[in-house]
Amino acid sequence: MAEPSQKETKKKPLINSRNDPVKNFEKWKKKYSKKKDKCKAHRKQNKKPEWQVEKETINRLEERYSEINTSEIERFSDFPLSKKTLRGLVEAQYRLPTEIQKQTIGLALQGKDVLGAAKTGSGKTLAFIIPALECLYRQQWTSDDGLGVLIISPTRELAYQTFEVLRKVGRNHEFSAGLVIGGKDLKQETACIHRTNILICTPGRLLQHMDETSFFHASNLHMLVLDEADRILDMGFADTMNAIIENLPKKRQTLLFSATQTKSVKDLARLSLKDPEYVWVHEKAKFSTPATLEQNYIVCELQQKINLLYSFIRNHLKKKSIVFFSSCKEVQYLFRAFCRLRPGIPVLVLHGKQQQTKRMEVYNDFIRKKSAVLFATDIAARGLDFPAVSWVLQLDCPEDANTYIHRVGRTARYKEGGEALLVLLPSEVKGMAKQLEEKKVPINEIKINPEKLLDVQGRLEAFLAQEQDLKETAQRCFVSYLRSVYLMKNKEVFDVFKLPLTPYAQSLGLAVAPRVRFLLKAQATSASKEDPGTTSDQEIEAFKSKLGGKEEDDQSRDDTDKVNSSAEESDPEEDDEQELSDSLKQTSLQFMNEDEDDDDCRDVDILTVKRRDVFGIEDGSFTLENEMTKSKLKKTEKVTKAKEAKKVLKKKFQVNTKIVFADDGEVMQQWPQMQKTTVNDTEEEDESSGINLAKAKERLTEEDRFDKEAYRKKIKEKHREKRLKEKAARRAANKKESEEEDEAVAYLDRDGSEDELDISALPDPDKYKDMEESDVGSAEESASDHEEERPKKRPYPSLAGNQAEKSVGIKKKRVKQNSEEDFEPLNTGLSLAEDEELVLHLLSNN
Ligand SMILES: Nc1ncnc2c1ncn2[C@@H]1O[C@H](COP(=O)(O)OP(=O)(O)OP(=O)(O)O)[C@@H](O)[C@H]1O
Question: Is 383's C-beta closer than 6 angstroms to any atom of ligand 1?
């Protein structure tokens, strides 16, 4: 056989380099990643910026705006809304739009001005919040763009509530939102207002920022929302609103919402809306209030109202109710009175004279509570969305049917049920029933069973007798209620002259009705007219202007910002001024002296800026001489202590009060202390001329007596405690000693030192000397204490009485036993301290 050639013999490799899969893979990988990088770079080059992608999405959404068909909308996702808004809605559990939302959101997205009206609780808030968010989203707004949407609310609470809804629904957007309301830190607001994209505010505070915050401007504004527009105007903010609107760009979108429309809203609409779309969802509805709301009214005499309120609360302890009153001071007094009455349910209070922090606290508190009663003025009537309110009780008749509708709207919100009860005086029934009927409010009369009414007048009287401060609050409440009735425009419903004044005052717990000067004057004026009892609008306006625009304090319009926003900042001063005017009013109300009439004018003047001819230029009486004599006279006037005291009294400084209650409700500690004497019965008469020093002294002496007595009791108690402690310590020591003595006896027996006297068993004389001295005022008590204990232990008398023991001291235990067995305890008839002294005496003799 031929040998294989060398070529053939060379072994062929199994896998050549071309077929090597590892290498191939690496090659491929290299190639692929190159390609990938290329693609990436290419894509990167071609990639649109985020804003551009968003713009395209926005364009696509905007294209759909014209196709919005209200009748086809079933869910929020049927609207061309941004993903961020839709996600926010889902997260906040809003899925299906309500009727007002269906009808207005589309129009607002299309950029139209909208005037929307729908029943209370029908979801108007979302109807403007969604378009507001979408408006800025469409503009791709950033924080650098400044203010884009402005939402104006009539009250601070409503503004806060809207802010919360915005925060919930707009959480996925990056816009900044701010709450600008009175009563908050102005500086803090100023610092961040220019970075805010959506501003929710009350009118007074907004105007203040427009005037005072240099870098705050609204020139970029796209949307203005006026929530509860009619209320804003009702509260006398028309001028403020005009001033605000003047500061806004003309090219903007305006949305205006309310549950009720008044002529003033139409005026505002003319002023601020361009070709608006009117959306009145429930225009054709049979009733203007929610279908799920049951409404009744009862006729009740004024003097029975408080009993009725108490009985109502006692019957609804497990419910959440809101009770509406017409004035702040009424609310203030009845809140305090009801806290004392302890109806068995938490009572909260919300009114315009509270500090902002307190207002927010109460608002949040009432939201959280499952059962509670909220006493409120009309500050709470608009827009507030407290969950699960079952009852709205209107203890005072509302100003008009619109106010009625908003008040009752605090219950039966968004498909929930609720009940409303209106309390009418016999004189109010006809006029109010007519108004409610015209406004399509379905309401029926129900009767109260007078036997079921719980009478609290006696208890209120007792409270007022104990507390002067509460009594004054009751007097203010009285005057304030009458004034609110007097200031009501609709005289068909409200007639202050028909009110039973004395019974009403008594029902508040007052002994007599305070004298109300403005009523007397009004009465005098109306008596001189043909038709007495009627008051013209002009007269009311004149009265209001005399009050210097402060009538809102006592009327329903107590709530919001002040138009004068700088005044708003200085709430405490304002309160002081009010207090002062009140105290003057109070003084003037109580006393009938003729010279007191000046006070009445003073009450009014204090609240007005009077143009006075200060220098007497007009009558030519201004001369340097005159002025000098006047100033001399001023200087020579002596300032006595009594005068100073009178001044202080007039200023009515309030010291802080503190009451500590025990678990059982007993007052344990009270500051300032209550007057215990009854000498002040006649004092009211003396108040007219300031302080009656003689009487004051007499009262002080009497008070002193009570104080001394109380002090003595306290000291006694202290001593007693001390003694008991010492006794316990002694007992323990004795026990220990006797145990030790057992051992000692054995030891001593061995030692043989039997004659020694162990004086350690004797009481420490110094200790008892101290005790004795402090016992002066508590002899009786200590005697009784010892009587109780002596038979059990009688340590010292037995020692003192057993002379033998001294000589046989070492056999103490036995002797002690003997002394207990053989001898009757020696009752010296002396106090413990005296007994001790006797022992010491005997010892020292030995
Ligand atoms: N689409 C919705 N789905 C579910 N709940 C809603 C919807 N819209 C509003 N609500 C709820 O209905 C309640 C009332 O809403 P809102 O406060 O906006 O009413 P309103 O019409 O402004 O009332 P008012 O006239 O008293 O101000 C709120 O508790 C709100 O959360």
Answer: yes
